[in-house]
Write a structure and sequence with these properties.
Blueprint lengths: L14 E7 L8 E6 L5 E5 L5 E6 L7 E7 L8 E6 L5 E3 L6 E8 L8 E10 L5 E9 L4 E7 L10 E7 L4 E10 L8 E9 L9 E8 L37 H22 L1
Antiparallel strand pairs: 1-2, 2-3, 3-4, 5-6, 6-7, 8-9, 9-13, 10-12, 10-14, 11-13, 14-15
Bound molecules: calcium ion (CA) (2 copies).
The site of one calcium ion has 8 residues, from loops.
Length: about 270
Amino acid sequence: MTVAYQSRRTVVDFSSAVTSGLFDGDAFLDVVFANYSQANRVCLGDGSGAFTGCANVSADTNSSAGVTSGLFDGDAFLDVVFANYSQVNRVYLNAATTLSVEKVGAPQSVLPGGQLTYTVTVTNTGLFDAAGVVATDVLPGEVALVSTNGCAEDPTAVPTCTLGTIVAGGSAQYTIIVTVGAATPPGTVLTNAVTVDWTANILAAQTTQTETTVAQSPPQPEPEPTPARTGTEQVAAAGVLPFTGSRRLPTLAGIAAGLLAIGALIARYGRRHG
Ligand SMILES: [Ca+2]
Ligand SMILES: [Ca+2]
């Protein structure tokens, strides 16, 4: 039997030791280099014999002389231990790729027949990129999908969203717009869940998140306001004409008495001069 080797380049480091293992959860063997006076590195195998996505195991720049791997903290992610020269030896627990998902519905309450927007944010909280990320949304029966935005499939009739690769520390966001059925009884609670998975996920449980939106009864119409009066208000008032004073009219008796007095004066004048 003849053994022949082809070489693949990884990174240029001042390496003193190396080990291999399944560090990122996929089926391709990865390698970890123990480096002298610089950060130790993990490089992910792509299945072809090449390694991509090399990253520092940590920011520490110890002088490492040896490395081994094992499941040290009870989870499914392979951890590593470095033997350091004249320094504290260290174990590094694998913060393998994990995705967190946040879902927000707006508005908080919606009227029957109204529109609702869900915003889903998926964040990679691990050390490694997550490839083949797919978010699947199970809409409540009271709503109908209008569209999605930010997914590879936009638009489709099913709110399944392909997000591709989310790099370590990165995030992806998409929205789902739905219409609430017009016959939805007021007070109905709309519960929505989203499930996220990715190619190399080795966790049995997938990440889920629910968001609840309450459909409230339509607001009662405001009573018609009393029209405001404008201009001058005029009021018709019953009454009498105003009096400004009084005068007495002469009577017939008064006139006769006046004539008699005049006659007496004339008679008296005649006797004196006759
Ligand atoms: Ca791997
Ligand atoms: Ca572990």
